[in-house]
């Protein structure tokens, strides 16, 4: 039980032959996985503001967010990412999020059309057809009716969606189109040259649609917007107070009577499972570590025991006799070498 009640902390174990070969471990409290003590989800503080559609590009210093001046919104690299688009406005706000404490999300831009009233084919050309975000839409096959025409127009728009950043869907009942730009860029529809039947052939009108931006802060200070150009981003000069939501403190205190409390309960259960899984992983790692050390020590012990046995089982009489014999042979060999070295000297003496 002491391994799981939280008191087993900073315990040192010798795991090697050296004095410094030790390991310190700590095990969190998970005794019986008591539901009153684990899985708690604390308070959440946040403030959120979603503006209207952007209207113009931001100029540097014209908008202040929580006391921090926002820089100018710049044109993006892709079609439709104008300086006035929600995409660019959000990027400008996020550039100072580190000091303002506020992050911005460009919501998907949406535009809708009516049902087509003419169902003939449209051939793309200098004075026929249309473009989206400056990207020309190709030929449109005749639809035969509003539903078929809408499906054909949507198909033609989607063929160039990778370039324009805009996708289209046609209503299965009316044939009316819905356009969407997921990253918050503008949706600009323009007729080619003198093409005058855009609305009849497609249900769309030549126009630019801007997206909206959502601001979010987890600071207790909330969101304070000021400056002469806040309307350019679709906002109004105002202070949005942060709200604090107290979530479930433990699994024991949860209920599922409302959607929010059920969501908090799921978070608490996920937290409890995560806590237990983390502790299980730690215990498994410690167990593997100690098992490895025990195996190593057992191997060392077996080797030492075998060495000791070899030493104890040695026949000292036989080994001493072998050593003496080797020494005698060595001495005899040395004597013979000495005599051999004297022979040349004796020969030289006789020659003299």
The N- and C-terminal alpha carbons lie at a distance of 102 Å
Number of helices: 7
In what order do the strands lie side by side in the largest sheet? 6-14-3-17
Tell me roughly what share of residues is in helical segments. Answer: 25-40%
Global Rg: 42 Å
- Outline, from the CA principal axes? elongated
Low-confidence stretches: 32-37
How many discrete domains? 3
What are the SSEs and their pairings?
Elements: E1 11-14, E2 22-25, E3 43-53, E4 63-65, E5 68-70, H1 86-94, H2 97-100, E6 102-106, E7 109-112, E8 130-132, E9 135-136, H3 146-159, H4 161-164, E10 167-170, E11 177-181, E12 187-191, H5 198-202, E13 207-209, E14 212-217, E15 223-226, E16 238-240, E17 243-246, H6 259-312, H7 316-351
Please describe what this structure looks like.
The protein has helices at residues 86-94, 97-100, 146-159, 161-164, 198-202, 259-312, 316-351, and strands at 11-14, 22-25, 43-53, 63-65, 68-70, 102-106, 109-112, 130-132, 135-136, 167-170, 177-181, 187-191, 207-209, 212-217, 223-226, 238-240, 243-246. Helices cover 36% and strands 21% of the residues. The strands form five sheets. Strands 6-14-3-17 form a four-stranded antiparallel beta sheet. The protein folds into three domains: 11-41 and 249-299, no CATH class; 43-107 and 212-246, Alpha-Beta Plaits (2-Layer Sandwich); 109-209, Alpha-Beta Plaits. The longest helix is centred in the C-terminal third of the chain and has 54 residues, at 259-312. Strand 8 and strand 9 (135-136) form a beta hairpin. With 352 residues, it is α+β, with helices and mostly antiparallel strands.
